Amino acid sequence: QVHLAESGGGLVQLGGSLGLSCAASGSILGINAMGWYRQAPGKEREWVASITTRGKTATYADSVKGRFTISLNNALNTMYLQMNSLEPEDTAVYYCYAAWLPSRIYWGQGTQVTVSS
Length: 117
Description:
Largest sheet: 7 strands, mixed
Distance between the termini: 40 Å
Radius of gyration: 14 Å
Order of helices and strands: EEEEEEEEEEE
Strand content: over 45%
Shape: globular
Number of helices: 0
C-alpha cells in the first residue's frame, strides 16, 4: 500500500503565505498524478490542484489560480503546495492524493489550514 504523509498546515493571517507538503512512501511505483483537495465544515470537498508525475503538468481550480503553486520532486517523492495571498475562504482541511490509472487513489490524512481575517 501507499502512505501519504502531509505537513505544513497552520494558522495564517489574511494575505499571508503557507506551504504544504505531501510525502509518498510504500508501493509508489507507477503514480500517474498527485494533487490536493480541500473541505470546509458543511461544504463539499473541492478539488484544488493536480500535477502529473511524468510531464509535471499543473492544473488549478479557478478559485486558486494565480495564488497557489503545485510542484513535485520525483527524487524525494514529495509534492508541495505553495499558497500565497491567502483568503478566509481558503480555510479548510487540505487532503493530498496520489492516483494510478485506472481508478486507484490513495489519500493523505489531511492538514488544517486556517486563515484569519
